[in-house]
Amino acid sequence: xxxxxxxxxxxxxxxxxxxxxxxxxxxxxxxxxxxxxxxxxxxxxxxxxxxxxxxxxxxxxxxxxxxxxxxxxxxxxxxxxxxxxxxxxxxxxxxxxxxxxxxxxxxxxxxxxxxxxxxxxxxxxxxxxxxxxxxxxxxxxxxxxxxxxxxxxxxxxxxxxxxxxxxxxxxxxxxxxxxxxxxxxxxxxxxxxxxxxxxxxxxxxxxxxxxxxxxxxxxxxxxxxxxxxxxxxxxxxxxxxxxxxxxxxxxxxxxxxxxxxxxxxxxxxxxxxxxxxxxxxxxxxx
Length: 286
Description:
The chain has helices at 11-22, 40-49, 71-92, 125-140, 160-171, 187-198, 216-226, 257-261, 270-285; strands spanning 2-6, 26-30, 54-57, 96-101, 144-149, 152-153, 173-177, 181-182, 185-186, 204-207, 210-211, 214-215, 233-237, 267-269. The chain has 286 residues and is an alpha/beta fold. Helix 1 (11-22) crosses helix 6 and helix 2 (40-49) packs parallel to helix 3 (71-92). The two termini are 35 Å apart.
């Protein structure tokens, strides 16, 4: 099978391509240089030149705070770009996996958000445009997987873990918010699930993160513990200690029962994922 993967230079797109190839599929990874998804003619050109069996749409505008000022650019990428891809998928009758986010929810309380039937109330421009992208996919396609994820980390690109390791070495102390609760997501584990999904017809909306929940503070403590950097002082603080332009959800707990109900394996615990990720980082740097 031959699949198109958008956002190949990002954390997830990079691992999806590797996982597809590992499973014997042909993966065509593209980024802005090869296919600007905000230009419909470029999307059509790429997708009509090569016969694809499905699309993994990993590309997105993810600069959450900057999106508050760059609303139209954010919408062009997250909504219009998604629409152009979905239109061609519909014409070619092929499935599409669209990666969405916990930011589509208002993030209050301690409720585990379910993938279907929940009240959608994004707090910021990024969350709103990702939700609008979801709606475009649902309106245009029958063969789709909408997969909401959170707190992503992978080898390719920057993430919270890399930032903590850098700050820990540079400063020996960090302050981390302890009132935002969610689940980290390792792109290598997620990529395996996404490839397994597209090989089925269990279409619909899903949540997929590594198992277990934590605060960013607890995540940071575990990072330094597993990295053997116990001397780093980690201080818990409230979110308002770090004023940002875009509001963040306090509650990013997401229900994942639907994965099992449809025959998919849940991802390993986030602590296990962190351990494997740190080993990979160490291997690369050595």
